[in-house]
Design goal:
Length: 112
Amino acid sequence: MVTVEDVRRLATTLPRSSEHLIRDRIKFRVGSIVYVAFSRDETLMGFGFPKEERAALVAAEPAKFLLPRESDLRFNWVVARMAALDPGEMRELVIEAWRMAVPKKVYAAYIG
């Protein structure tokens, strides 16, 4: 099982990433763009994900992933159950969400 602390250890190493506590929820942002956010009880992790791919992700693993609440469907966003994620999968999801929020040159420098 992945914890918020596991995500924090990764997110704090990503360029331009910052942690914020907003309405009792931990969120990671690049500037004003939130790329990862946790439910208040820290059992769910929302993350940036392409809209056109999220239905397939949720359909493929409904025990692990779910669509965001209706008011958030307009955003590039998906939700994962923390208990169902493994560390490698979390790492991939967080880095890809962060990649969507930073300029391409920042991501290129990070992987280079």
